[in-house]
Specification:
- This protein has helices at 8-16, 83-93, 97-105, 118-125, 145-152, 156-159; strands at 19-23, 35-40, 48-55, 60-68, 71-77, 111-115, 133-137, 140-144, 162-164, 169-172, 175-178, 180-181.
- By secondary structure, it is α+β, with helices and mostly antiparallel strands.
- A five-stranded antiparallel sheet has the order 1-2-3-4-5. Strands 7-8-6-12 form a four-stranded antiparallel sheet.
- The longest helix is centred in the middle third of the chain and has 11 residues, at 83-93.
């Protein structure tokens, strides 16, 4: 099985989010299942797993890393799912903003810029959650990569009025703002 045989849109999402696919070695207990992990390119050769998908005779099952109290656990998504649908579930629901913050502290930071009205920019920068939002003045806001990752799958208390869409636009109370990755 070619694990990279996926659509262009999903390939682009993986690239933008610094994720890559890795086929896990088969274990002696496997009954023909294939396991593909989704990993964050955190600067280490093997990356950090943020989810995985497992084949069954009739479908794929997706597991995504999600917060659970003060730690993380895998959330299961049952099918019927195709291989690509299972990967999309992992990409959509996996939470790894904590890993990106660690990467940012190590000097591997990416940032995004958004332009909006001054009042809205001040309101956005005033939030303590997520960390990594700065008002640069004149309605221009910079978000760290970890802040963007957090807002792709925020907790309900934040996600009701603020999140990043699948098309990488910042959504605030019904208004969307294009995000530009800084050089």
């Amino acid at each position: 099985m070619d694990i990279n045989r996926i659509g262009r849109a999903l390939k682009e999402q993986l690239k933008v989010r610094r994720l890559f696919l890795f086929r896990e070695p088969a274990s002696p207990h496997d009954r023909g299942e294939v396991t593909v992990s989704v990993r964050l390119d955190d600067g280490h050769p093997d990356g950090f797993p943020v989810g995985h998908v497992v084949s069954t005779p009739s479908t794929w099952i997706a597991y995504a890393r999600v917060p659970h109290g003060n730690s993380f656990r895998n959330r299961e998504f049952l099918g019927p799912l195709t291989y690509e649908e299972a990967l999309e579930r992992v990409v959509t629901f996996a939470r790894y903003d904590d890993l990106l913050r660690h990467s940012e502290r190590a000097g591997r930071a990416r940032t995004y810029s958004v332009v909006m009205g001054v009042e809205r920019a001040e309101w956005l920068a005033g939030h303590t959650e997520p960390a990594g939002i700065t008002h640069l003045g004149g309605g221009r806001v910079r978000l760290t990569e970890s802040a963007v990752a957090y807002l792709r799958n925020p907790p309900p208390s934040v996600g009701l009025f603020l999140f990043v869409t699948d098309r990488d636009k910042l959504w605030i109370d019904g208004d969307t703002y294009p995000m530009t990755r800084d050089a």
